[in-house]
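Example 3.2
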Amino acid sequence: MNKQWPYLVPGIPDDAFERGSLPMTKREVRALTISAARLAPKLTVWDVGAGTGSLTVEAALFTPGGRVIAVEKSPEGVLLIQKNSLRFGVSQIELIHGEAPQALCGLPVPDRVLIGGSGGRLEEIFAECAKQLVVGGILVATIIAPRNLVKILDAFNSAPFSEPEGVFIHASRLEKLGRESYFRALNGVWIISARKEEV
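Structure, written as tokens:
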């Protein structure tokens, strides 16, 4: 909670962020992702494939006294994450300009991991994140491609994870069309999460 977003709920409007040409995690998906991650003060969070940093910023607002590490390979994304961090005054964001999974080596051990963009390396990224995540920690993946959904479900249905949770969100937003209003559909997204168990 801060002067840019003085509320205790997730779901900052999309147009509050600097956006550029990169895809951005939409408001509705961010709200459900934050909920699935069960964030709390003083946690260390990885946001892998952070894109514009919209989810990074929201995670930071829910982890006061903690650390949010944004990993992004795109130079444009890095610049947008910097701008959005400044815009919302969240100082605990640490930005890593690099490509996962290599860029994850040596980072502080995470209590939570958020996986967004994977650049076609989802299985490698998931494996590294699962290895580094603390026991009892939660990993949340947002998926738009059915092929990646199958990979994530297979990964979550084996040790060290158990009983994954998931939701498919296909939201529509109210918009004006002339003098009338209608609902414009957004792209569907799967949000899959699980807790890491003791092996």
